[in-house]
Write a structure and sequence with these properties.
It is built from 6 helices and 5 strands, in the order βαβαβαβαβαα. The protein is of the alpha/beta class. A 5-stranded parallel sheet has the order 2-1-3-4-5, with helices on both faces. Strand 4, helix 4 and strand 5 form a beta-alpha-beta unit. This is Response regulator. It comes from Bradyrhizobium australiense. Pfam families: Response_reg (PF00072). One of its GO terms (biological process) is phosphorelay signal transduction system.
Length: 128
């Protein structure tokens, strides 16, 4: 079992559950949240190794979450997933250091490759 903790944030319950199950099957500890605010209030913020988040969510978006966490000194890798692939969102996420930007529905293998890249030594920097 890995000691890596993956936090999944998506307001779509079915996507959140499917992603949770896939990541858990890879041996990671997984925590899932319905909103960015739930994640920020959780005790798992500081033990997170990687965030997988939806881009568009009510209240705080995944991009706003990334900005907030970077501003507060959290530098863990981000993997974005979205049903609304907008180039400006992708560019903003990648410029801020995201490892991957996947369109829903995404292939499980693509997510696995993103996780491997994100958790590799210097993984986030390799995709800037």
């Amino acid at each position: 079992m890995s000691n890596r903790v993956i936090s999944i944030i998506d307001d779509d319950g079915s996507v959140r559950a499917a992603t949770h199950n896939l990541v858990r099957s890879l041996g990671y500890a997984v925590h899932s949240f319905a909103s960015a605010e739930d994640f920020l209030r959780s005790p798992h913020l500081n033990d997170t190794s990687c965030v997988i988040t939806d881009v568009r969510m009510p209240a705080m978006s995944g991009l706003e979450l990334q900005d907030h966490l970077r501003a507060t000194g959290h530098r863990f890798p981000f993997i974005f997933v979205t049903a609304f692939s907008v180039e400006s969102d992708r560019a903003r996420a990648m410029k801020a250091g995201a490892t991957c930007f996947l369109s829903k529905p995404f292939d499980g293998e693509a997510l696995i490759k993103c996780l491997e890249a994100a958790l590799a030594p210097n993984g986030a920097a390799a995709n800037k």
